[in-house]
Specification:
3 domains, 13% strand, Aspartate Aminotransferase, domain 2, binds pyridoxal-5'-phosphate, globular, 16 helices, 7-stranded mixed sheet, 16 strands, 3-stranded antiparallel sheet, Aspartate Aminotransferase, domain 1, alpha/beta
Length: 475
C-alpha cells in the first residue's frame, strides 16, 4: 500500500480534521515535497492509514481540487498539478495563502534564472559512458552471490582493491598490495574512520590553512586538536609544521585545496623526513591528481615514502562519479597490522553491488578509457576558461592555482565578495564564496571568488566569463 504522507492531525484543535489535512497537503505541494505529477494516495488507503473517515479525506481532496492544486484523472485518482498551472481560483485565496505562495515563488526564482553555475564538485556528466556503466551494473547482479548481496569483505571487494593497487602504481607511482587498501564511502568517511582507528581524539592534527573544510569538519567533530600550518607559495611551510608539534598532519600536496599550488619534490622529501624524525603520520589527500594541465606529473608523496609514514587517500568522485561514493585509504603495512583487529569491528560502508560493478568497469578497461577522455575534455575546458579569463577579465583579476583540478580561485582586485556574488547572480551567473576553507573565514581576502568548471561546457564557460565581465566591470 502506498501511504503517501503522515501529517500530525490534532483532534483537540478547533480546526476540523479535513481542513488540517487539506492545509498539510497544500503546504507540501507548495514547498515541493509533493511534486507535480504525483498521484495522491487513494481516499480509501489514506483514510485507513490515518484512521480517519473516507469522507474527511474526500472533503480535503475536493478543496484541493477546487483550488487547482490537483486534478482528477479517470481511473488514475488525483494527480498533483504543476504550480504554474494553478487555476485562477488561487486569486481568491486567503491573504495568508497568497503570502506563502509568493514566498515560494520568490525562493524558487533565483535558481530558475541561473544560467551558468560555476559550482565546485560538478563534473561533466554528458560524456559519462552510461551504457557501459549500466552493463557493469547488470553484470554485477547477474551472478549474485553472498559477496554481492551480503555485507561484502570488510576492507572491500578484493578484485577492486587489486585494480586500485594497479591503477595507483601506474598513475601515482605507489607500490602497494591490495591488502593495504580499505574502501570507504567518500573522503569524509575515510577521515572519520582514520580518526577512530588511529584514536586521534584529543591528538594534535596539523591542517593546511586554508584547507579543505570537509575534512577539517570531520577532524574537529572527532575531537582532534586542530593546529593550522602556514602555507607558502609552494605549499605547506616546513618551518611552521616543525614548530607546531603535531602528531599527524593532513595535506593536499599534489593540488593544494583551495589555493592550488603543487608541493615541489624537495619539500615532499623534507615533509617525509619530518614525519620519520617525529614518528608522525601524514594523511595525503590526492583527490584530483588525474587532471593536470600545464605541469608534469609529480609522484605522490606516498610513492616517495620509504619510512611508511604516509596514509594515502584517493577518491572516485572526480575521476568517475560523486554518486559512486567510493574512496579508499592505503595504509602503511605496519600501521595496518596494528589496527587490523579493530578494523574487523567495522562493516564495509560501500555497497558491494557498486563495488562489484566498478570492478567490472575497471577490469574491462572502461575506467582507464573514461579517465583518458575526461583528461582531454577538462584540459579543453580549462583552456577555454583561462583564455576567456585573460580575454574578458584580463589584468583586473588574478587566477590562483589554475594548473590542475576542476576549480580555480579568482582574485577580483579591489572588489568585495558579496557584491561580486550578487552582481553575478543578477546576470544569471553563480559564483562561490571560498571563505569557509579558511580556519578563520575573516582571513580569506574579500576579493576571492571560487569557480568550479567541471560541470560547464566550453561554450558555457566562455559565455559565463563574458557575463561576469559585464556584471563586475560594466558601469
Ligand atoms: C580536498 C578534497 N578532498 C576530497 C574531495 C572529495 O571528497 P569525496 O571523496 O567525499 O567526494 C574533495 C571534493 O570536493 C576535495 O576538495
Amino acid at each position: 500500500m502506498k501511504l503517501g504522507f503522515t501529517p500530525l492531525l490534532d483532534t483537540s484543535s478547533s480546526t476540523p480534521i479535513y481542513v488540517q489535512l487539506y492545509q498539510y497537503i497544500r503546504s507540501q505541494i507548495e514547498n515541493g515535497s509533493i511534486g507535480p505529477g504525483t498521484v495522491l494516495t487513494s481516499i480509501r488507503q489514506l483514510a485507513q492509514h490515518l484512521s480517519i473517515s473516507k469522507n474527511t479525506v474526500e472533503t480535503a481532496y475536493q478543496q484541493l481540487l477546487a483550488e487547482g492544486y490537483i486534478q482528477s484523472r479517470e481511473r488514475n485518482g488525483y494527480i498533483v498539478l504543476p504550480l504554474e498551472q494553478l487555476s485562477e481560483s488561487l486569486e481568491h485565496h486567503t491573504a495568508a495563502s497568497e503570502a506563502s505562495e509568493s514566498l515560494h515563488k520568490i525562493a524558487a526564482a533565483p535558481s530558475k534564472k541561473i544560467k551558468y553555475d560555476f559550482k565546485y564538485g560538478d563534473i561533466e556528466l554528458s560524456r559519462f559512458p552510461l551504457a557501459h556503466w549500466k552493463k557493469c551494473m547488470i553484470e554485477a547482479l547477474s551472478h549474485p552471490d553472498i559477496n554481492v548481496l551480503g555485507y561484502g569483505d570488510r576492507q572491500g571487494h578484493e578484485g577492486l582493491r587489486t585494480e586500485i593497487a594497479d591503477m595507483v602504481f601506474q598513475s601515482r607511482g605507489i607500490s602497494c598490495k591490495p591488502e593495504q587498501i580499505v574502501l570507504c564511502a567518500g573522503t569524509q568517511h575515510a577521515v572519520s574512520l582514520l580518526c577512530q582507528l588511529l584514536q586521534l581524539r584529543e591528538k594534535t592534527v596539523g591542517i593546511e590553512d586554508p584547507g579543505y573544510h570537509g575534512v577539517r569538519t570531520v577532524l574537529r567533530n572527532h575531537g582532534c586538536k586542530l593546529v593550522p600550518v602556514v602555507l607558502e607559495k609552494d605549499g605547506i611551510s616546513l618551518e611552521s609544521l616543525r614548530a607546531s608539534g603535531v602528531d599527524t598532519v593532513y595535506v593536499t600536496p599534489s593540488h593544494q585545496f583551495p589555493l592550488g599550488m603543487v608541493l615541489p619534490v624537495q619539500k615532499r622529501l623534507q615533509l617525509l623526513q619530518w614525519a620519520a624524525d617525529t614518528r608522525s603520520y601524514i594523511i595525503e589527500d590526492d583527490y584530483d591528481s588525474e587532471f593536470r594541465y600545464n605541469s608534469k606529473p609529480i609522484p605522490s608523496l606516498k610513492a616517495l615514502d620509504r619510512q611508511e609514514r604516509v596514509i594515502y587517500l584517493g577518491t572516485f568522485s572526480k575521476s568517475f562519479l560523486p554518486a559512486a561514493r567510493l574512496s579508499y585509504i592505503i595504509f602503511p603495512p605496519e600501521l595496518l597490522h596494528d589496527i587490523q583487529d579493530e578494523l574487523q569491528n567495522y562493516s564495509q560502508a560501500v555497497s558491494p553491488i557498486i563495488q562489484q560493478a566498478i570492478w567490472h568497469f575497471m577490469r574491462r578497461g572502461d575506467y582507464a578509457r573514461h579517465v583518458r577522455r575526461m583528461k582531454r575534455l577538462y584540459q579543453a575546458k580549462h583552456k577555454a576558461l583561462t583564455a576567456a579569463i585573460s580575454l574578458y577579465l584580463n589584468e583586473r583579476t588574478e587566477m590562483i592555482g589554475g594548473d590542475s583540478g576542476l576549480h580555480i580561485l579568482l582574485d577580483v582586485k579591489g572588489k568585495s565578495r558579496s557584491s561580486l556574488i550578487d552582481h553575478a547572480a543578477r546576470l544569471g551567473c553563480k559564483v562561490y564564496n571560498p571563505e569557509r576553507h579558511w580556519l578563520d573565514p575573516k582571513c580569506c581576502p574579500d576579493s576571492y571568488i571560487m569557480i568550479g568548471f567541471g560541470g560547464l561546457s566550453e561554450e558555457e564557460l566562455i559565455a559565463g566569463i563574458k557575463l561576469l565581465n559585464k556584471a563586475w566591470f560594466s558601469a
